[in-house]
Amino acid sequence: MAEMMQIEAMDYRVSDLPYSDFCVDPSTPGKEVWHRVQEDTELSGVILQREDQLVGMISRRRFLERMSRPYSLEIYLKRPIEAILEVENVPVLEVSGDARIDEVAAAALNRPIELVYEPVVVISSDQPPRLVDLHVLLLAQSQMLAATNAIVQQKTAETQSSLDRLTEEQNKVREYTRLLEIKQMENKQRNDLLQVQQNELSLKSKEIEELNERFVRIGQLLSLEGKKAFQATFAGVNSICGTTDQIINIGEALEKELEAVDSATKIIEDVSKQVRHLAVQAAVVANQSGGQLAGFSYITSEIGKLVSQTFEASSQVNRVATRFRTKIQENGEAAHSTAETARSLIQKIQRAEVALAELEQVVGTALTPTSSPEQIQTLMREGDASTTRLQTVEDPTTQVQSEAASGG
Question: What are the boundaries of the region Disordered (predicted)?
Fold first, then answer.
């Protein structure tokens, strides 16, 4: 018998199992079969076949049992093997070579108890009949069951591993679901916040639109009033310049008149000196003449008094002229400073007109509810710059007012 093979797959057929194919004609002497059975200890039995037709089968066990009986050797060794087949008359289990091992094992075990251990005859279309022992069939089935069990255990382990992975994935899915719910809640909160911010933005847009309208109205009013103020300021500055020129001219004329007063005062002083000198001489003559010129002495005394009074009046006139000259000089300096300030004011007003024109341009660029914060800040900076340039007009105006007050 061929070496027992290991069955590892579940779909092996009975033709794949170890077998014995000792096949003889029914007329073969029993002696030949006896010698073959004695020589081949693994021989399962003998198949009797006449012209490709299966006649029967005698298992090794039944053949040895029959031959071990008294006088069997003398009876059957010289007779054809067919004689033993007629005595035993054992039904043969024929199976196809393509039959499954588990099916053949089940059919073999379903035979009567006295036939359970008989070999199975395997019939194949391209091969002679074969004998397969029951223990080979059962061993193959057990190996298949073991292989099946190993596969089941492997599949069970794989299934358990898959279940573990599935459980882990389910845990991940639950965790992802929880995180997704948290994210959805956060997104909902963000959406609510965005909705609130959008509502606030809508209100801010309306406020910006209202402020824009007010800004335009204020800008237009400022432009109109600014132009009027600039015209009035120009007129006032021109009037200040004219008045300043008149003050300067009057100061120059008064300076000339003071020069004439100085000249007259000097003449009076000279006359007073001469009269004093004459009065002194007259007093000397009167003192020399004694009582004859008593009346003349009185006249001389009166002339001396007159001279003193004239000198005093001349001194007072000089002091008044000096103070008047100082005031005229201060007035002239103030007038010159006022003129310089007025010219500076004119320059400032011209720059303010440019700033006002820029402010009108900024006002003309009206804001809209869709204006970006950068556009709003840019327009605010331009408006602040224009306002700053407009404020510079106040400085020279204040200076003119303070100088006018100090001059008064």
Answer: 384-408
